[in-house]
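Sequence design from tokenized structure. All designs in this work follow the same two-part layout: the structure record, then the generated sequence. An example of the structure record is given first.
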């Protein structure tokens, strides 16, 4: 019988150890469940953040494409404006030479003093408070004005 008692004691000790191990495992499983729920919540937030990021990237690409088109349009306009400025300078020179030749043919008007050349890159600096120089009134000159001169003076008077 002693060996039966020893065997019962051994089984009782093993049962206590198994119960203690089961309690420890139960606590660990509960902690793992809580951690799993937290991980699922974080995963959902990460998915939502990733979706917002994807939407933002698409919007940024669209904005970049729009901005690129606007820059290309601006570059084309710059080229057009440079061409127009060049043409306007040429036309102004031609108009000036036509006026000079018309005056020299009439012989009545003295030569018009040539203005200082103006840079086509920037406007000439103007002092604050100074007004735009006014053209002479038509009555102040003795020579009759040509149609081109009258049109030029009218255009200069109407500009701000």
């Amino acid at each position: 019988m002693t060996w039966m008692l020893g065997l019962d004691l051994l089984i009782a000790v093993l049962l206590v150890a198994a119960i203690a191990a089961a309690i420890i495992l139960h606590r660990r499983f509960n902690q793992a469940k809580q951690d799993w729920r937290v991980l699922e919540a974080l995963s959902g937030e990460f998915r939502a953040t990733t979706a917002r990021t994807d939407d933002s990237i698409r919007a940024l690409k669209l904005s970049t494409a729009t901005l690129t088109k606007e820059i290309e349009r601006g570059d084309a306009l710059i080229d057009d404006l440079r061409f127009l400025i060049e043409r306007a300078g040429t036309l102004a020179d031609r108009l000036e030479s036509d006026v000079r030749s018309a005056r020299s043919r009439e012989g009545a008007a003295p030569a018009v003093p040539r203005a200082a050349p103006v840079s086509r890159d920037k406007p000439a600096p103007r002092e604050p408070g100074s007004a735009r120089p006014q053209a002479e009134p038509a009555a102040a000159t003795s020579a009759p004005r040509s149609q081109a001169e009258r049109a030029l003076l009218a255009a200069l008077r109407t500009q701000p």
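Residues 132 and 160 are 8 Å apart (CA to CA). We note this feature because it recurs in several other targets discussed in the main text.
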